[in-house]
Fold:
Amino acid sequence: MANDSVLGPLFSIRDIITRLENCDADIVGMTDSFHIHPHLQSYFLYCKKNVVQSEEFIRFFREVDVLELKIAIIRKYEVGFSRLLRHRFRLSALYGLEPVLARVDYHQRPATWIEPTFHLWKPLITEFKFPFLKKSLLTRKGVSMEEASAVLAESGSPYNIGILSDWIPPKR
Structure:
């Protein structure tokens, strides 16, 4: 399952697909978060057949409603999905927060709660060849085209950076 909050893939996802298929977990996300409650982030989730066919999974998606506020969506559905399904299934993140933080220089670590794709986007891309870039980096955080281009170039990503300009707000 994927949503449109990320751009990519910045690198080939062939190896990622292999990692997903070979993972012991039943549900695998790209990243996890400890904000609100430990959970897999919902922009990209891989669920094995036993999960998709489960009563819990079907009921969860049958009960999804339209919500206005992003934080309400995160609490009820992103966090809620992990909280509900972790009782029966094993969850894992390919780019878990703890292993990523272990390789990040102490001075690069955020002081408060960490949203990995927002706060650690540079090391994720340059050191881990992470295949996605959150759109909110370009819209809310104000990462410039030059900064994003430099990080992609440093990482060796073949991604067409021209696509990024669609997400960078015009300067006023």
About this structure: The mean pLDDT is 89. The beta strands are 6-7, 27-33, 39-40, 45-47, 91-95, 133-134. The CA atoms of residues 44 and 91 lie 13 Å apart. The chain has nine helices and six strands.
